[in-house]
Amino acid sequence: MTVTFLSYIAPHAISSAHAAGTNDAIALMEQQIHAMQAQLNTMKQKQAAENRRIRAELARQRELIEADPYASRAHLLGQNTTGPYGVAPHNGTGHDDVFGLASSAIITPSRTASTPYGELTAIPPAHPDLYSPLRRGQLQIGGVRLTLGGYLEAAGVWRSRNSAADIASAYNAIPWHNQPTSHMNEFHQTERQSRLAALVEGMLTKKLEADAYVETDFQGAGSSSNSRQSNSYVLRARVVYGELKDSADGWYILGGQSWSLITLFNKGMFARDEQTPMVIEAQYVPGFNWTRNAQFRVVKTFGPHERYAAGLSIENPSSVPAGVSPCSTAAHHCTTTDRLTGTNVNNPSTYYTSDPAPDLIAKVAADPGWGHYELTGVMRFFRDRNSTVGSGSNHTTIAGGGGGGMVLPLIDKKLYFQASGLVGTGLGRYGSTNMPDYTYNRTGGVTALPEASILLGLYGNPMKNLKLYSYAGAESVLSRRAFDEGSNHYGYGNRNFDMRGCSTELATNCAASGNIHTVAQATGGFWYTAAKGDYGTLLVGGQYAHTHVQAFSGLGGKPKSDADMVFMSLRYQPFN
What we know:
Strand content: 35-45%
Oligomer: single chain
Strand order of the largest sheet: 2-4-5-6-7-8-9-13-14-15-16-19-20-23-24-25
Order of helices and strands: HHHEEEEEEEEEEEEEEEEEEEEEEEEE
Shape: elongated
Largest sheet: 16 strands, antiparallel, barrel
Number of strands: 25
Distance between the termini: 110 Å
């Protein structure tokens, strides 16, 4: 019995003791859990309070930035600027800088394309690092960066001979002395060169960048545009293109409307780096080779720092015919067709020539370390058709030529020299004067005119806020392309064209306007930076130009005309 009782009591005692120990452990764990929950709640409360503080700080800083977005960060927030790498570790409230940006500036200073013309017109440059701090005039939308550019201009122009032109002169329309307007001057004020520009950039892949650029001004004219009352001149497309850039492999592909590849560059062969003259005049300078037209361009760069480049551009054709065709007389019983009046969305007030193929332009450029150098070639195609009743025939002519240019830093950052030129046949379109490209031969076919152009320039910065420039340029049809049949005179520059009335007011026997030999100009001017601050740049400019026009000699002599021009400009660049 004793043994049996003990054997019964012992296990139950052990079980009770074990149960008591387990309950104590559970109670201890519950206490620890409650303590942890209390700590977690406390942490949540602290985190919520910190979040509210950060949101309030962000709102305060945003209000300060919006009130003065270009002020320095330290100035706005009272930060200590002695932190490592220029980062201020604390603001005036003793809290960490929640933005984590450098204190030097929230938005870094703006930049323009690094050309003289780019600085004067606030052309946005390319930005190799699309994740760098924003600059003035920039917005970031996700991975896309938008850079604004352009300027607002109030300009005035005075000409000694009245050609009814705005800020862009018509050099080949300077009146001859038989016209009353040759004996009258003109003055106009204009805002139409004011320019709006936007550059959009983004990365398609880790190595392939895409950008799009749009540049517009108000030098278009609609059917109701006038300068009498509302001055309703219209917005026009200057430059509109898209571009793919693989800088690692040196490939650049551009499509859209841009400056022709024939235009001299300031460096390399990159879009928006063109060496455009610094003048106020919107038609630039005679001898300056350029167009802005639709094109498809491929450029390949070589060497360290992309110092060498080769490019090919396929560009929209548009030729300039001139002279008298033998089919213009009743004796030949034929009709020459080489142009059509615009239809649909083309301008019905002008003509479009029947060119059969695009203009082809090739260029190589080098920046070996001192100066910039270029060689250029161009090929063009002209066509007309001579028709008689029931039949006809097409005539196609290939024309073109070559040239080159250079930009030399005579005194680094102080004085520069530039020179460019072009020679060949059928190149009139590519000059500022818009000289003719071709005339007609004995069969009524196309004959390309031999032509040449040259431009020399000298410019610099004698003072920090002052830019001075001077240019001299000329464009010329080098020789006549003309013939006679009986008493009729054809072609361009014919010696028997009647020039006897070119010096007599209201005389009608003056064929000079359709037979211009040479247009030359010398010009000079200045740009002064009157003010530059957080909210833009104010420029004041002045320019004087003397233009000389000479026709081929004919019956009665070799007529000539000239014009003096004075331009003034006040430009405000809000994003520069």
